[in-house]
């Protein structure tokens, strides 16, 4: 539709993310303000698109020309509505010239609409449009050539003509324009995130499970250990798919937000976002009824991020029949059992990065390049080895080491042997904090004593002797991605991510990392030997 459509894909993502407005409207007020422009403006606003329209957006007290130019520069898309008297305004012609300048210099997307004129009239300045331009040309000789070139350039962009679309029906024509603008905006929004290293295949797998081309309602859960990229993956897929739905909504960090504000606020957020108006909910029960009755005929996309309690899903996405045909519900969680209990259609386990993906992600964060930096490659491999392919750990450490010298890198690596990076520990510890007391004891015992050392049968025998009744607890730990089980030559054994084990060790050491006599568990040979041969008092220690 627009010959500039390919150019916007080359613009840097940072430019679009910093834009204040989504759309700048350029028009001649006396021709279209109270008819077409007002209808277009209202429809854009209903879709939550940020629109600059001079009579409503212009800050009072600013010079008109400067404010308009800045608004153009701070917009992602410029929609120019050409009418018979457009060229009769020097302001409109100045706007147009600046828009075309920004198209060339800033990758501004330009969408021309030839409202009641032909593109050839604009290009060649003919008929009434040409008469209007001639008046301004006579008054502004020094600017006329710039304006004329802008008119030629913009008329060479394949634009929109109402009479040729939707049989001239204005409402249908506006709908098509708005749909196109939404498509453009969401392509810009879904530019591959810098953090999306290694996620392309996972992205495609998740899109396949969602299968938006099919009917019915689908709920898909994304499950994995903390820091594995669940939210990054879910958000990226969500941004890619929004234009296919009547409504869409992200509810972020539900675990924390629910504890702060309650489930009714989460229900209000979903309904308000999907219907683009304020919706009040007075109780969770009322919210459930409202969601089912209001959404059952509406095709929506909802992302529920970081769910950790069954009651959250029951209140926010109770059953498939709450939503209209074609709806998709994406859920991220650390708890696989929660997804199974809610009977989601698919569970997608997020795998850790490959070795190559891990080093690529680290390079991007540590020195903003994808190629190795001389003298730092060996150190980079040590950091990536420590992070054990966990995206969160790689990004945290890479960002910390950015602009540090070699001595600081070495010092950091040495320190990590004894003191873990707290941003990583706190993220992983969320899963531990949600365990019951006996489950916590099981986890700490496995982290300190049983990972890879004992067969599961041997470990379970010990747990039973301690009256831990471990069957259910072990199942919970697996469902929360805290432990895994692998087969060895001598039988199945417990395993876990290196940093999850380190988190367990950190919890045991607590506030006394240098005083093993105050720890609840000892697993290092030298500490056990020292405690047994020394005179220090041992209290409640497991060896």
Q: Mean pLDDT score, rounded?
A: 83
Oligomer state of the chains in this structure: single chain
CATH class of the largest domain: Alpha Beta
Helical content class: 40-55%
CATH homologous superfamily name of the largest domain?
Toll/interleukin-1 receptor homology (TIR) domain
- Counted up, domains total 4
Q: What do we call the CATH topology of the largest domain?
A: Rossmann fold
Question: How many strands appear in the DSSP assignment?
Answer: 11
InterPro entries: Apaf_helical, Disease_R_plants, NB-ARC, P-loop_NTPase, TIR_dom, Toll_tir_struct_dom_sf, WH_DNA-bd_sf, WHD_ROQ1-like
Protein name: Putative toll/interleukin-1 receptor (TIR) domain-containing protein
Keywords: Leucine-rich repeat, NAD, Plant defense, Receptor, Repeat
GO biological process, one term: signal transduction
